[in-house]
From TrEMBL:
<dbReference type="InterPro" id="IPR006195">
    <property type="entry name" value="aa-tRNA-synth_II"/>
</dbReference>
<comment type="similarity">
    <text>Belongs to the class-II aminoacyl-tRNA synthetase family.</text>
</comment>
<dbReference type="GO" id="GO:0004816">
    <property type="term" value="F:asparagine-tRNA ligase activity"/>
</dbReference>
<dbReference type="InterPro" id="IPR004364">
    <property type="entry name" value="Aa-tRNA-synt_II"/>
</dbReference>
<dbReference type="GO" id="GO:0016740">
    <property type="term" value="F:transferase activity"/>
</dbReference>
<comment type="subunit">
    <text>Homodimer.</text>
</comment>
<keyword id="KW-0067">ATP-binding</keyword>
<dbReference type="GO" id="GO:0003676">
    <property type="term" value="F:nucleic acid binding"/>
</dbReference>
<dbReference type="GO" id="GO:0005737">
    <property type="term" value="C:cytoplasm"/>
</dbReference>
<keyword id="KW-0648">Protein biosynthesis</keyword>
<dbReference type="GO" id="GO:0140096">
    <property type="term" value="F:catalytic activity, acting on a protein"/>
</dbReference>
<protein>
    <recommendedName>
        <fullName>Asparagine--tRNA ligase</fullName>
        <ecNumber>6.1.1.22</ecNumber>
    </recommendedName>
</protein>
<keyword id="KW-0436">Ligase</keyword>
<keyword id="KW-0030">Aminoacyl-tRNA synthetase</keyword>
<keyword id="KW-0963">Cytoplasm</keyword>
<dbReference type="InterPro" id="IPR004365">
    <property type="entry name" value="NA-bd_OB_tRNA"/>
</dbReference>
<dbReference type="Pfam" id="PF00152">
    <property type="entry name" value="tRNA-synt_2"/>
</dbReference>
Length: 433
């Protein structure tokens, strides 16, 4: 039915589900969905045989049917079209569908995630997710990247060894990957510009609206760009993703009542860039303001989500915070020239409280310095022999970043909780369904 405009006045047969229904003695209004669109079917008693009208009146929520009818314009509906039904064939009856039009609690909906996905809001969020994935492949292709798939099972920690999910690999410990980055760096030395896109895992005990234990990451790795040029690339990428959703999923944004003027503003205005230390100064200067609600931070402390939210809201556009303290960032980042206590990295903070959507950095290229960092971080150099090798055989300056797909989806869709941004969320307290 999403192609309805090409079929106005024609008779079509569509496989659909009944989401709701209302009927009087002479007419029945069926709310239908066919997987692509939500639309109305009108059954006029005088127009159909008696059996069909009785069937229409008795249809239960989520029963599947073939409906045959004439497509006509309907300016009152979002889709703009409806179906004047002539015939109905029941395919599969539905009994006591648990998600009724009344309000349900989140736990109940999460327990029924396999069915909840059929609802208009969840459908719209998944369409936005799809549009972002599509735009991502398109962006990387246009910019000379090839897709280079990193493994999911790994013998080492890409980020922080405390967040690993461990499994048994034929008697040896193995871990579910936290990021494809280290392997992508090998790819960059072979292909120049590479990206990956796949599930990553973090055994984070964070129960927040921004954390999943399994999420999808787009990592990219590339050579020779300066730190600023690297941020230019990331900025162009995020703008291309937002534009991709505006182009490809406008109905979904409308269903979610997302403020598209704001999205357009994020595309047309330059993202803000400030250093970590400037951000701390700013937070300290505003910590006693009436409308602020975050804890005092010293230079060297990491941000919590209230700080991230405040910073990006302060600027009203996505904001890169650059050059964080070496101590609170991963072992592979290159120090700022002349200042070993800060690293050449950036987190991109989305406005409106959506938090960090990208983490990226320039990588350490020197063998000895990298080895020192691996050791001082309490990691075993043997586990990183392949990674160290990349610094032995023609090491070149390179940088990369990782974007959390579900963070990006919540931001563009304007949904408050990350659990709705992935078909089947894995959370601290949930691995079913
Ligand atoms: O900042 P992170 O940890 O960076 C890396 O993993 C780098 N290796 C990426 C790279 O340079 N190639 O994670 C990247 C992004 C974050 O900015 C955030 O958007 C998302 O992944 N993310 C999460 N999303 C959902 N749930 C979680 N628990 C997440 N942890 C990180
Ligand atoms: Mg990060």
């Amino acid at each position: 039915m999403n192609q309805a405009k090409d079929y106005v006045g024609q008779t079509v047969k569509i496989g659909a589900w009944v989401t709701n229904k209302r009927s009087s003695g002479k007419i029945a209004f069926l709310q239908l969905r066919d997987g692509k669109a939500y639309f109305q079917g009108i059954v006029v008693k005088a127009d159909v045989n008696e059996e069909t009208f009785e069937l229409a009146k008795g249809l239960t929520q989520e029963s599947s049917v073939f409906v045959t009818g004439v497509v006509q314009e309907d300016t009152r509906s979002k889709l703009g079209y409806e179906l004047l039904v002539k015939d109905i064939e029941l395919i599969g009856e539905s009994h006591e569908y648990p998600i009724t039009p009344k309000e349900h609690g989140t736990d109940f909906l999460m327990d029924h995630r396999h069915l909840w996905l059929r609802s208009t809001k969840q459908h719209a969020i998944m369409e936005i997710r799809n549009a972002i994935i599509y735009a991502s492949y398109e962006f990387f292709d246009k910019n000379g990247f090839i897709k280079f798939d990193s493994p999911i099972l790994s013998g080492n920690a890409a980020e922080d060894s405390t967040e690993l999910f461990e499994t048994d690999y034929f008697g040896e410990p193995a871990f579910l990957t936290q990021s494809g980055q280290l392997y992508l760096e090998a790819g960059a030395m072979a292909f120049g510009r590479v990206f990956d896109f796949g599930p990553v895992f973090r055994a984070e005990k964070s129960k927040t609206r921004r954390h999943l234990t399994e999420f999808w990451m787009m990592d990219a790795e590339y050579l020779y760009l300066t730190h600023d040029e690297s941020l230019d690339l990331q900025e162009a990428y995020v703008k291309a993703l937002i534009q991709g959703v505006l182009d490809r999923a406008p109905h979904a944004l409308e269903t979610l009542e997302r403020d598209t003027e704001l999205l357009k503003k994020y595309i047309s205005e330059a993202f803000k860039r400030i250093t970590y230390d400037e951000a701390i100064d700013l937070l300290q200067a505003h910590e006693n303001d009436e409308d602020t609600d975050y804890e005092h931070l010293e230079h060297g402390d990491d941000f919590g989500s209230p700080h991230e939210t405040w910073i990006s809201n302060h600027f009203g556009v996505p904001t890169f915070v650059i050059n964080y303290p070496t101590e609170i960032k991963a072992f592979y980042m290159k120090p700022v020239p002349g200042n070993e206590s800060r690293v050449l990295c950036a987190d991109l903070l989305a406005p409106e409280g959506y938090g960090e959507v990208i983490g990226g950095s320039e990588r350490e290229t020197d063998y000895d310095k990298l080895l020192d960092r691996i050791k001082s971080n309490g990691l075993n150099p043997d586990d990183y022999a392949f990674y160290l090798d990349l610094r032995k055989f023609g090491s070149v300056p390179h940088s990369g970043f990782g974007l959390g797909l579900e963070r990006m989806v919540t931001f563009v869709a304007g949904t408050k909780h990350i659990r709705e941004a992935i078909p089947f969320p894995r959370l601290l307290n949930r691995i079913y369904p």
